[in-house]
Amino acid sequence: MIELQNVSKSFRSAAGQTAALSDVSLSIEKGEVFGVIGRSGAGKSTLIRLINLLERPTSGRVLVEGVDVTALKPAELRAFRRRVGMIFQHFGLLSSQTVAANVAFPLKLEGRLSQAEIKARVAELLDRVGLADQAKKYPAQLSGGQKQRVGIARALATGPDILLCDEATSALDPETTRSILDLIADLNRELGLTVVLITHGMEVVRQVCDRVAVLDRGRLVEAGTTADVLLHPTAEATRQLVAEADLAEETAAPHDGRIVRLSYVGDAAHRPILAQVARDTGVDISILAGRVSRIKDTPYGQMTVALQGAGAEAAITGLRAAGVRVEEAA
Amino acid sequence: MEALFANIVWADILKATNETLIMMGVSLVLTVLLGLPIGVLLYLTGKGRLLAQPVAHAVLSAVVNLLRSVPFVILLIVMIPVTVALVGTSLGVQGAIPPLVVGSAPFFARLVETALREVDRGVIEASQAMGATTGQTVFRTLLPEAMPGILAAVTVTAVALVSYTAMAGVVGAGGLGDLAIRFGYQRFQTDVMVVTVALMLVLVQLLQIIGDRLVAHFSRR
Hints:
- The complex is a heterodimer.
- Chain A is an alpha/beta fold.
- Chain A has helices at 44-51, 74-81, 99-110, 115-128, 144-156, 174-191, 202-208, 226-231, 236-244, 273-281, 312-321, and strands spanning 2-13, 16-28, 33-37, 59-64, 67-68, 84-88, 162-166, 194-199, 211-216, 219-225, 258-265, 284-295, 298-308, 325-328.
- Helices cover 35% and strands 31% of the residues of chain A.
- In chain A, the strands form three sheets. Chain A has a six-stranded mixed sheet, sandwiched between helices.
- In chain A, a hairpin with a 2-residue loop joins strand 12 (284-295) and strand 13.
- Chain B is mostly helical.
- Chain B has nine helices and no strands.
- At the A-B interface, helix 2, strand 6 and helix 3 of A face helix 6 and helix 7 of B.
């Protein structure tokens, strides 16, 4: 659906050329929620703006459904942008216009629908994002979460295939963030919308992303399914982000015996694996730290345990056989 | 009362007030028509803006600064040949309007540029992301969003024009300023001076009140 091929972007500044992105390649599948995570200054904002060409790459190609968007003529680019919705951290709403007029804005730009059709479409969109009763208000009268819902309704107005979310929940409190992410996930399922979101919050990735890419100082350091990247980060930048988000377990308390880290995803989370292995091998298992939770819709568990007794080796083999990933704790 | 306002001819005052209102009103409309596009161009051609054009911006900016740096009294005189060419005379209300517009349009253009700069970049970016042309971004996003600022600029310009019309009195433009200079100052008729100044004060107050109301009406923040 979306493919970045060896994309680089540098900006001219007082100090000379500054590279925002260096040789980034990634591909985003139709209908998935794809996250890009990184610290501020990692190049996330630049990356998402390359997709609808708010930024032009210095080199490399940006393909959307096989079409090189950097080669589009101005009119073609405008038509293309109507098929790509975008929402922003600070919402980007017209403060001088009502909620309804903001949602109608892209439809008026397009100039395809009649006044009556626009009115009907706006009502339908506001209803979908739960703001049917706020149509006549001005953005300044709304809460942050409501403003972002207006932003989403506006982004969907022209019926896009792709939704770009530029730190869409970064200005919102945790509860509002969850409700906005739920809405985005619902829209992804209902409309088959391909969603690209950038964030510096691991929680956002964990809640909605199918796959995730990690940017560090303009370079793509890791990419894969959300579960893989979060549970088994390989790049240092990813490890730090995961650790800060408290998705990794606390440092284990000192304990005798053999200390190992276990992680499991999916069905394994529902089975009483630890109890079974303990029974079969006669090993005492003490849980030192851990968490059982969900990554998007997939349950997962991650824990640090101490194995005591002669059967420790057999226990590890048994755990592995049950689909648990076992690593020696350093 | 008779003794207090011995020199006042109310018919003259009325005529002068009318002339001031016409000079100010017509000049204001023309100033907005001329200054608004210049202000928009100043903004659009600026660094990092939609139509960033460093050379065009520098030239436009220099012309605006040049016109703004000429004192209005001098501009009135320097412009006489141009004024005659444009409206056939350099005298009266008609003759005052071209220098008034040339004097205030660059000032108004700068105020418009400043008002446009206050518009949130995020809104402009959103407009582009939705596939707006530059024209659509200007007319549907920039100008509506900057409307309170632009109305405030119109108010400030209208008030400045009132004092410019008084100066235009020096070259025989008519109006309250003309009356104040010829009778109030040159003939020591203090009562004429007091009445004309009082009328201009009322005019300025009214303009400011109307302007503030309009700004409040269009502000949604």
